Every structure is written in C-alpha cells, then in structure tokens.
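Checked the freezer inventory, then went back to the computational side. Two predictions to log before the end of the day. The first one is the construct we discussed on Monday; recording sequence and tokens without edits.
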Amino acid sequence: MTTIATRLQAIKSRIAEAARNAGRQPEDILLLAASKTNPPEKVREAWEAGQTVFGENYLQEGLIKIRALADLPIEWHFIGPIQSNKTTPIAENFLWVHSVDREKIAVRLSNARPESLPPLQVCVQVNVSGEVTKSGVAPEQAAELAAFVSQLPRLKLRGLMAVPELTSATALQREQFEIMRKIFEQLKKDGFDIDTLSMGMSEDMDIAIAEGATIVRIGTAIFGPRRYAIPEELAPRQ
C-alpha cells in the first residue's frame, strides 16, 4: 500500500478502537481528511485509497483542488475561518461548512447558496477554549446562533464544531470536549434537529470520540506534517 493508504488504514483502526472503548459503533464516526497545504495529487491518492470526504481551511487553495479533482465525486467540507467577502464561492462550491461563527456569515451563506443545490449543511463553531486567536462563539452563545441559523432558508443546521486548545494536558482536553458534548445534548433536548459534533484532530481524536464526536478532522496523521504556510493564513478576519 502507499504511505497515505497505510496511514488511512491506521487512522480507521484507531477510530474503531476509540469507538469500541467508548461503547460506540465505529460507523457512527465520520473520518474527514483535512487536506490543507496538500496538493491535488495527494488528495487523489487518498481518494484512491477509499477516502471520500475532504475538508479545506482556505478558500483559494480549496477551489484549486475542487477544480483539479472535478472528475471525482468528492464531498467537500469548508472547515476554516470565513471572511465575509468569500461567502459566495464557499456557498457555491462546498456541501458543508463547519465554521459558522456569527450571524452575518450565516446570512451571507444562505443568500449565496444556489437554488439548484441542496441546502448548505452547516455547523456552528464554538470557541470552547476561549482563545483570542480562535474563531467561534462563546459556549453560552451557541444556542442563540444555532437558533438563528436554523431559520435561514438555504442552510441546514447539522450541529456544532470546535477546535479545542492544543495541549498535552489530557484532563483539559477532556474537559473542553465534555463542554461541547453537553452543549450539543442540551440543544437536542431543546428541540434542535441536529446530529453532528465535529471535533477531534490527529492529536486528540481518541478523547473527542470518547466525548461523542461524530466527525473527526484528521490531516497530519493522513498526509504527514505540513510543509509550508499559504497567504490566506495571514489574511485578517472580516
């Protein structure tokens, strides 16, 4: 097998083990390959190894890959911070958006989603760690934004997304994932029709799965270490 195929198989085995340890079914957890900074050739290699769902953090980079891989029925998710002037191409080219963090962005995505496409599947991003460098609403504001999103005509609210603090402190990791699970469960009790908790990456996916993640976003463990930054990472948030 190729290196990417080998890594994919290892990740799938890790997901299955983490699910079993948590008393869950492995098929209830979706593996999303976070492909930022990796060229279309590597995405194609992952596709040929059986991976069908990919997430991009930066619009221009993502559009290059979407066009280069148009022959493949890839399910594209946008998982990065959203600048308001980029909502239209995001709404036109992605099936999912995980990073809706304010009403302005939600409205622009809804208005830009073509009628010819199914509703855009979206998650509300929660800044569960409170880090000033991260996007997302505060945990106590998640329900308000979720209610707003759920009323927009071209969006389908699916759940919540978070990027918890990257730390070696297992207790802190679990605490933040637990907060997300409790918000998610409370929204469901309050009548929200949601099924998605997008959290967990290469370093912390096992704990995320134990706390109820339904989508894990894995990049490094599939494609290897990032090799360079791209200009969009330096762009200010609008």
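The second is the one RB wanted added to the comparison set:
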Amino acid sequence: MSFSIHFTHAITRRPAASITRGLRAVDTGNPDLALMQAHHDSYVATLRETGARVIELPPLETYPDSVFVEDTALCLPQGAVVMRPGAPSRLGEAAEMAPHLRALYGEVVGITGAESFIEGGDILVTEREILVGRSARTNAAGIAELAGLVAPWGHKLREVHTPPGVLHFKTDCSLLDVDTILSTTRLSASGCFDGYRVIDVAEGEEAAANTIRFNDLVLMPAGFPRTRDAILAAGYTVREIGNSECARLDGGMSCLSLRFTPRK
C-alpha cells in the first residue's frame, strides 16, 4: 500500500464563526459560514466514503484559521511532527492538535526552535522523498529541523522554492499517484519535479492545482472544468467539492485535513 496516497485516517476541524477574521492575501470579502460548513460537510463525507476513519474536531473560536488543520502537523506512517506555523496568530493551533495525534501515534515530535517556522501546506510527501517549499511561512531553520526529525524514520527531505506571491508550495501542486504530480506551469517550469510525471493545470485554473489523492478518489475544487477533464482523461476518479468560501482565505482541498495511516 502506498503511504502517500492511501490512508486509514483523517483529521478535520469544523470552521469556527471567527473564520471571518481569517488571514488572506487579497481581501475578496468574508466567507459565508453556512456555505463553508456545507462544503466542509461534503468534504468530510467524501473522505468517509473511501472507508477511512475521519475524526472531525470541534471549532476553535480563538483561532480563526483553525479549519486549515494541515498546517499544524506532518503525519507519516512512523510518527507525526507538530509544526511551528509562520503566522504568529496560528502558533497555538499546533499545540491544540498535538494531543489528538498522541492518541493515535506511538511517536509524536515537534518543531521547537525559536527561529524555526514551518507549515504543512509547504510540504508535499511522495513515496521517494519529502519536498518542502521555502515560503513566507516556512523558513530554512524550520526545514533543517524537520529534516533532522524525519531522517531516523528513513525519509529524505529536499528543499525547493515556493513561487513568489504564492502562499504555500502545495497551493501550486498536489500528488495524483506515486509518480504523478498536478502542478501549475509556473511551478513545474522550475524543474523541481524532474523525474516525476507532471500534469499541468489549465491556464487560468491555477487554483485547481491544490487537490488531494485520498485512496481511490481525487478531490478537487469545483469550477475548473478543463483541469478536471485533464485529470479524468489521465484515468483518475474525480470528485469535485465546493471551495468558494475557503478560497477567500487562500484555502484548498489539502488544507482541510491531515491524512495518514498511523503505526502505534
């Protein structure tokens, strides 16, 4: 079983009413909480449809961005690493996630350096390596600390660079199978995916690059028909999920869950 695309567990968190105060690169208006919750319900139901155990945590009103749980941890088969988010308002989210991970994993470690910052949205795990994008939220110290933590578990880490003006590395890419990456052309043109098969999203549909492969399904945001058709043509089973409200806060499919198969 491929650990990078097949999972027995996922953790999500319901959006809080405080989400209207969430961080955003460009203000396109506040998200509609009811519509966001409806989209989130569809997302959780789709994960469960694959047979996975989905743990849905309650909202955290103190942390407006806490629905985006992926940034709080890196979950690997051997253990979990609690992140240290680069946005100061999100630092407490990682601490809130840690006890839930300890209940599922035999080993949970954490990024602790005062100068280390790293968010899960900058981390793409493949079967052969862990790609970590340097960004405004993830710095060299955080990447170096993570490399030291995952090395004893047999994982090799490679630092790459998130495109300028892009929030997270995975804003612009996602894993479709063990050898195939969906990417924007601005990212794939850098050569960071040499050795992989790459499917580029359609021009003007860059927001479709953030999908997730979860067991037999590819979950992608609704509204990007040319990219959807390209993924379908490549032989994948696609499920489109509404993402209009999360997108107002720079969020996508991967941001909304931690996906893993823990070894106790």
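For RB: Helices lie at 33-49, 91-102, 140-150, 185-188, 225-233, 244-247. The longest strand covers residues 9-13. Let me know if you want it refolded.
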